């Protein structure tokens, strides 16, 4: 019968450490991580201390950053256990943890590492934030081109235990410059006496340590690799980046863009544990700015007070019209941001897209105008022409705003995700009000 979370709490309460240890050791890493995450701060550390050494490495990596900090804080009194934990974590995972901490705390923890691990951590942290150098791990296997296949396997058996991956083996010269890479499958199928140099073609794909992490995402997407070598500008092999590391970056970038698209700054990873003031601070700036932008909509409405009094039915269709323009603009902005992020379009392509977007939005506007005409024919047939024309123009203009804003922001060196849905909607609302009531004033001969 499986042990429940309540059972673990009971074992801790009764101090049945031996039984608790055995139960924990039977869990897989995901189950153990979930148990540690859901425990109170004090119990969290107790559970973590009773895990096996192999479990601690895997569980720590799976925990959210805030939970990792709780574990580190709880283990700080036990220098030996803390030093061992930090040394056991993969260099790239340890770097990701350190860079989330305040500098003074990270520095104190680095001092607890072995001299060799200290050197690796300091080297990785010396690369610019969000660079590929921060993402790479120095744990890989490299062989010489003059090795025989048998010698290569002997080298892999001796040095491959701590390698991040053995799917790809890297071939270097005496100065650690990368010559090529060879898959483990190619080595297995080759005769033991064959020279490694005979298996390579000197064509390989690599990353530069100083490039942005988004470059790595693009290269992994284009070449479908499980790992890629990271080189210095001189071509020296410094480390590797694996696919699982890239998946973490993609998730982080997507989350960041999602928050920006919703006009949220520095969103908390766990709102249940974040301070109320921080949650408020992350959202209030854009909301206040958008309030002032929407004042223009109110001012526009006020200027058409007379026509509204004469044709009250115009107000019935107002929310529908301006929302349609905003929705069309948000769709367009979402697509453009996505295409720019994937590199499928460049900033210089903006003028090529305008004609296509105008045609598509015209067809969308016509379709939506037909739909709204059916409603207007029953509700207010005298303003059908105004409503239909306004719908077509609003959808086209909203789409154009959504198309251009990401390009403008990119040109200004601002993240295009900042061309968020609320911003597109607010601009479309202002333009929509002006267009709708200007048409009404002209066409209704007011």
Describe this structure as you would to a colleague.
- This protein has 446 residues and is mainly α.
- It folds into three domains: 5-126, MgtE N-terminal domain-like (MgtE N-terminal fold); 142-242, Roll (CBS-domain); 276-443, Tetracycline Repressor, domain 2, CATH 1.10.357.
- The protein has helices at residues 5-13, 17-25, 29-38, 41-50, 53-62, 65-75, 79-88, 91-98, 103-110, 115-125, 132-135, 149-159, 184-189, 213-223, 243-261, 276-303, 305-310, 313-342, 350-379, 384-411, 421-443; strands at 142-144, 168-172, 178-183, 207-208, 227-231, 237-242.
- The strands form two sheets. A three-stranded mixed β-sheet has the order 1-2-3. Strands 4-5-6 form a three-stranded mixed β-sheet.
- A hairpin with a 5-residue loop joins β2 (168-172) and β3.
- α14 crosses α15, α19 (350-379) runs antiparallel to α20 and α20 (384-411) packs antiparallel against α21.
Please write out the topology.
Layout: H1 5-13, H2 17-25, H3 29-38, H4 41-50, H5 53-62, H6 65-75, H7 79-88, H8 91-98, H9 103-110, H10 115-125, H11 132-135, E1 142-144, H12 149-159, E2 168-172, E3 178-183, H13 184-189, E4 207-208, H14 213-223, E5 227-231, E6 237-242, H15 243-261, H16 276-303, H17 305-310, H18 313-342, H19 350-379, H20 384-411, H21 421-443
Parallel strand pairs: 1-2, 4-5
Antiparallel strand pairs: 2-3, 5-6
Helix pairs in contact: 3-4, 3-5, 4-6, 8-10, 14-15, 16-21, 18-19, 18-20, 18-21, 19-20, 20-21
């Amino acid at each position: 019968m499986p042990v429940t979370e309540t059972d673990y709490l009971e074992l801790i309460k009764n101090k049945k450490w031996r039984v608790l240890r055995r139960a924990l050791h039977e869990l897989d890493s995901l189950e153990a991580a979930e148990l540690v995450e859901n425990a109170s701060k004090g119990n969290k550390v107790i559970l973590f201390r009773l895990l096996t050494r192999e479990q601690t490495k895997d569980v720590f990596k799976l925990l959210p950053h805030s939970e990792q900090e709780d574990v580190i804080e709880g283990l700080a009194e036990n220098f030996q256990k803390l030093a061992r934990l930090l040394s056991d974590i993969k260099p790239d995972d340890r770097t990701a943890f350190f860079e989330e901490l305040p500098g003074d705390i990270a520095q104190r923890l680095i001092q607890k590492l072995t001299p060799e691990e200290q050197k690796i951590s300091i080297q990785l942290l010396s690369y610019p934030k969000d660079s590929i150098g921060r993402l790479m791990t120095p744990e890989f296997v490299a062989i010489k081109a003059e090795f025989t296949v048998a010698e290569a396997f002997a080298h892999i058996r001796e040095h491959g235990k701590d390698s991040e991956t053995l799917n790809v083996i890297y071939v270097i010269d005496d100065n650690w410059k990368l010559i090529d890479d060879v898959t483990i499958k190619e080595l297995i199928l080759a005769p033991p006496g064959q020279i490694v140099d005979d298996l390579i073609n000197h064509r390989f794909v690599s990353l530069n340590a100083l490039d942005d992490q988004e470059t790595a995402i693009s290269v992994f997407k284009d070449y479908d690799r499980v790992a890629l070598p990271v080189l210095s500008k001189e071509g020296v092999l410094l480390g590797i980046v694996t696919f699982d590391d890239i998946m973490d970056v993609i998730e982080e970038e997507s989350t960041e863009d999602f928050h920006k698209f919703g006009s949220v700054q520095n969103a908390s990873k766990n709102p249940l544990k974040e301070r109320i003031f921080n949650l408020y601070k992350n959202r209030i700036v854009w909301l206040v700015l958008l309030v002032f932008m929407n004042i223009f909509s109110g001012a526009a409405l006020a200027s058409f007070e007379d026509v509204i009094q004469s044709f009250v039915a115009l107000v019935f269709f107002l929310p529908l019209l301006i929302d349609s323009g905003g929705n069309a603009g948000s769709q367009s902005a979402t697509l453009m941001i996505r295409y720019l992020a994937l590199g499928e379009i460049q900033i210089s392509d903006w003028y090529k897209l305008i004609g296509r977007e105008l045609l598509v939005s015209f067809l969308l506007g016509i379709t939506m105008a037909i739909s709204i005409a059916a409603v207007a024919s029953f509700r207010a047939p005298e303003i059908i022409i105004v409503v239909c024309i306004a719908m077509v123009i609003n959808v086209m203009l909203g789409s154009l705003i959504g198309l251009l804003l990401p390009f403008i922001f990119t040109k200004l060196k601002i993240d295009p995700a900042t061309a968020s849905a609320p911003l597109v909607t607010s601009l479309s609302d202002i333009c929509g009000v002006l267009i709708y009531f200007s048409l009404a004033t002209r066409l209704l001969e007011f």
